[in-house]
Amino acid sequence: MGLALVIIIGAILGWLGAFLLGRDDVFGGTINVFAGIAGALFAATRAGPDLLPYGASAIELIWGCLGAALAIIIVNLASDLITSSAEHRS
Fold first, then answer.
1. Hey, which of 13, 46, 68, 85 would disulfide with 40, CB 3.0 to 4.6 Å?
2. Triad 41, 42, 44: Cα angle to 5°
3. What's the pLDDT at 41?
4. Which of 59, 55, 64 is CA-nearest to residue 7?
5. 43: closest CA among 77, 16, 1, 72?
6. For every residue of the chain, which 3-state class applies, written as one string?
């Protein structure tokens, strides 16, 4: 149950991040959702070893939210840097 909760939180934060950053295209929104899930899973599993067998604690969920937000920020910064460097080359 804890694993599913962390994945859902990561996906919701990814979608919210895409919405707030104005990523209107499907690709950008999808990348944000996957980044949110990956960040949430990584941070939650580092916060406590009991995520998979026993469910998520409040600390693991908080770290999962922070990890999702950090992953979304990193993905969007990298995307903006790649886009801006490609525009400068043209």
1. 68
2. 65
3. 83
4. 64
5. 72
6. CHHHHHHHHHHHHHHHHHHHCCCCCHHHHHHHHHHHHHHHHHHHHHHCCCHHHHCCCHHHHHHHHHHHHHHHHHHHHHHHHHHHHHHHHC
pLDDT in tens, 58-88: 777 788 888 888 888 888 888 888 888 777 7
pLDDT in tens, 11-66: 888 888 778 777 767 777 788 888 888 888 888 778 776 655 566 677 777 888 88
Residue 12 is encoded by which pair of tokens?
């919701």
pTM of the entire structure? 0.76
Q: What is the pLDDT of residue 22?
A: 75
Do 7 and 41 contact (CB within 8 A), yes or no? yes
